Amino acid sequence: EGPNMQDTFQIAGQSYSSRLLVGTGKYKDFTETRAAIDASGAQIVTVAIRRVNIGQDASQPSLLDYLPPKEFTYLPNTAGCYSADDAVRTLRLARELLDGHDLVKLEVLGDQATLFPNMPETLKAAETLVKEGFQVMVYCADDPIQCKMLEEIGCVAVMPLASLDRKSVV
């Protein structure tokens, strides 16, 4: 690899020069969000559809005005969803608000305290979303069998949680 070769990363047929995905929900306002994203160099921004306005509320500022989709790849996610139906409904809304955008992050939680995934609901939601043409990146348990099942369903990326802290489970 020569000095002019840029290291790239591909997901769902798109190339990126940054592997960093940055969330958009932990800043005091959208101006601070934009400054943090710019400083990070991230090209993909995750957006919790249930928590961040991307057009759901026309009376409030929209993240789209601060992070235009022409400049950043949005990765709408289902943070705060505890059922397959809720997650699917949330991502359908995101696709509608983002003019047909289909790259999404699926996370169906099973426990509010630990944020561990609910794998039966995750598998169910993944199946529905892939059938509907979504490009699904999925947060899941670190079980290789279930990860393989998600791959076989057609998810474009499988993102297992880090190792479980068994003390917090007991």
Describe the structure.
The protein is of the alpha/beta class and 170 residues long. Helix content is 33%, strand content 19%. The chain has six helices and eight strands, in the order βββαβαβαβαβαβα. It has a three-stranded parallel β-sheet. Helix 5 (144-153) links the parallel strand 7 (135-140) and strand 8. 29% of the residues are buried.
List its traits.
170 residues, alpha/beta, three-stranded parallel beta sheet, 6 helices, 8 strands
Straight-line N-to-C gap: 49 Å
Radius of gyration: 16 Å
Strand order of the largest sheet: 3-4-5
Q: What would you call the structural class? A: alpha/beta
Count every helix, treating DSSP H or I runs of 4 or more residues as helices: 6
Provide a brief overview of the structure.
By secondary structure, the protein is α/β, with parallel strands linked by helices.
Sequence-ordered SSE layout with sheet pairings:
Blueprint: E1 9-11, E2 14-16, E3 21-23, H1 30-40, E4 44-48, H2 63-66, E5 73-77, H3 84-97, E6 103-106, H4 119-131, E7 135-140, H5 144-153, E8 157-160, H6 166-169
Parallel strand pairs: 3-4, 4-5, 6-7, 7-8
Antiparallel strand pairs: 1-2
